[in-house]
């Protein structure tokens, strides 16, 4: 890869194809179009608006209700809108479905190589910017194009393809069972803190070849990295060290796991490349799959449209997963792509070196392809949740397997699971790129732990550890000798749920 990819200017748009006035997000805004929410004090950003009055995606109003913000931007600007980010740095937000695909699928015009960003070249991105973790160029596939990208992606794709689907589901079942054992006797839980936030990382550590005992510590470390906690740097160092020693061990004695397959791939990845890509995989998997599982669970437990459809017997758990990937994709926006030369998209003139954010959530809601957003998508997989083009997510089937097997296990173990707070009391831990439910309090009839064993291989996550707080008094009865799910007390299964769940799980 070169530092400055060849500039390939796009076709100069016909003058009437370009919306006027055209704010130039990098060099300052032109006069606002009438009714533009970016300039409306009551708009999405209100008094939080940036000095030049463009919508700031980091403003509390935008973060609190990103979908409403995207719709106001779409109404005012069409499929591509000028926005501001942290420190009032300008960018384009791609809102149209087709425009998102155009940007994602045309690397000659829109590169992943962030080193061409005008704001980097002009030294306008502060060293403390929250944009840096996602935009600062690193030698990993996310920032590669062309042959360099093809080489690493073929190693990643081939290694992921070797994973045995049944093996993935077995790991998910095992870890989901252990997590459920941590709270099943109590009759109440926060499913996000005690189940959802742990499952993806525990499963991924197995798939990449780490021992059981590394799982819980990596869950905490990766959460701290994502939250920007005071210990984020140390946690990141811990993740890298853990992966470095894994790669050294697997190079000496390969096993049946992602680390060994990446190391042994004919493309000849160096140890550093393997470590860096395993890290990308762990961090991406954890946040995104956590978000996906939490949203699907909320939908299963609360959405009347979904439950009504269930009663009609049409929607499966897999349908619910795809519906969430349409309506609440884990990555709301994705930074990004950078224009390799002056070009045009969605009627906007884009300058060489401008940053474009893929608006995955906005694109999924584009009325041009989804005039009725309330219509169920029934398993349709053409959403943008996994991106598009050469960088489209290679792990999508893994995350689907973790989500639907994990939820299947949960509903089977706790069949009368129900929310213990009103839906409007739920809130999200908000971020401009990804977000997930902060908590999902539920109640159910207590059941005995089914799988918890003593000894070194239990891997069971004690409640205090899982929730990060003090353990509540478990009302778990004695474990039955045969280790099977406890027969008593049987959950009181009432109402729609048992029949609905049977249909939900039908494939
Ligand atoms: C619900 C879960 C997930 C979501 C929503 C998701 C979404 C995405 C998106 C939007 C991208 C960027 C695509 C682009 O730039 O056009 C991406 C890239 C990537 N994802 Fe995922 N992902 C998920 C799970 C996973 C899992 C489980 C793995 C690993 C096994 C994984 C590995 C990767 C990698 C390595 C990349 C970089 C690919 C590249 O740049 O070529 N993801 N993912």
TrEMBL record:
Domain of life per record: Bacteria
GO molecular function terms here? Answer: heme binding; iron ion binding; monooxygenase activity; oxidoreductase activity, acting on paired donors, with incorporation or reduction of molecular oxygen
Against PROSITE patterns, the record matches this protein to: CYTOCHROME_P450
User: Which InterPro entries does this one have?
Assistant: Cyt_P450_B, Cyt_P450_CS, Cyt_P450_sf
| Compositionally biased spans, kind Low complexity | 483-492
Location of region: Disordered:
1-49, 451-507
Q: Which residue stretches does the UniProt record annotate as biased composition, category Pro residues?
A: 1-14
Q: Which SUPFAM superfamilies match?
A: Cytochrome P450
Question: What family does the database annotate?
Answer: Belongs to the cytochrome P450 family.
Q: What name goes with this protein?
A: Cytochrome P450
């Amino acid at each position: 890869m070169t530092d400055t990819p060849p500039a390939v200017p796009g076709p100069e748009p016909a003058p009437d194809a370009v919306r006027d006035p055209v704010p130039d997000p990098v060099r300052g805004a032109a006069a606002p179009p009438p009714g533009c929410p970016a300039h409306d004090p009551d708009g999405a950003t209100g008094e939080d608006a940036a000095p030049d009055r463009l919508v700031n995606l980091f403003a509390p109003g935008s973060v609190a209700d990103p979908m409403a913000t995207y719709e106001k931007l779409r109404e005012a600007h069409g499929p591509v809108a000028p926005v501001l980010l942290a420190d009032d740095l300008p960018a384009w937000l791609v809102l149209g479905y087709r425009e998102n695909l155009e940007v994602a699928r045309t690397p000659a015009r829109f590169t992943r190589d962030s080193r061409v960003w005008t704001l980097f070249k002009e030294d306008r991105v502060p060293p403390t910017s929250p944009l840096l973790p996602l935009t600062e160029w690193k030698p990993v596939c996310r920032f590669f194009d062309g042959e360099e990208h093809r080489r690493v992606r073929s190693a990643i794709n081939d290694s992921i393809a070797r994973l045995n689907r049944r093996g993935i589901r077995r790991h998910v079942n095992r870890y989901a069972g252990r997590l459920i054992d941590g709270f099943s006797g109590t009759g109440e839980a926060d499913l996000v803190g005690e189940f959802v936030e742990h499952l993806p990382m525990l499963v991924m550590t197995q798939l990449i070849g780490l021992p059981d005992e590394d799982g819980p510590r990596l869950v905490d470390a990766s959460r701290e990295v994502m939250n920007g906690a005071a210990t984020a740097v140390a946690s990141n160092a811990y993740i890298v060290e853990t992966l470095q020693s894994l790669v050294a061990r697997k190079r000496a004695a390969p096993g049946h796991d992602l680390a060994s397959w990446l190391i042994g791939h004919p493309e000849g990845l160096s140890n550093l490349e393997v470590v860096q890509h395993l890290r990308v995989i762990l961090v991406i998997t954890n946040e995104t799959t956590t978000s996906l599982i939490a949203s699907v669970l909320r939908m299963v437990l609360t959405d009347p449209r979904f439950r009504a459809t269930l009663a009609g017997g049409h929607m499966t758990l897999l349908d619910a997963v795809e519906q969430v990937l349409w309506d609440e994709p884990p990555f709301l926006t994705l930074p990004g792509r950078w224009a390799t030369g002056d070009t045009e998209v969605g009627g906007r003139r884009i300058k060489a070196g401008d940053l474009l954010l893929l608006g995955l959530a906005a694109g999924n809601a584009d009325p041009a392809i989804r005039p009725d957003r309330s219509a169920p998508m029934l398993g349709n997989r053409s959403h943008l949740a996994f991106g598009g083009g050469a960088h489209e997510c290679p792990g999508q089937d893994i995350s689907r397997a973790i989500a639907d097997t994990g939820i299947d296990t949960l509903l089977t173990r706790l069949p009368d699971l129900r929310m213990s707070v009103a839906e409007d009391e739920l809130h999200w831990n908000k971020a401009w790129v990804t977000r997930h439910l902060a908590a999902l309090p539920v109640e159910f009839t207590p059941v005995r732990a089914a799988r918890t064993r003593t000894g070194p291989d239990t891997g069971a996550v004690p409640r205090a550890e899982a929730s990060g707080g003090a353990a509540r008094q478990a009302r778990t009865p004695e474990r039955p000798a045969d280790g099977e799910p406890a027969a008593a007390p049987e959950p009181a299964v009432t109402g729609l749920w048992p029949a609905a769940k049977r249909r939900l799980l039908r494939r």
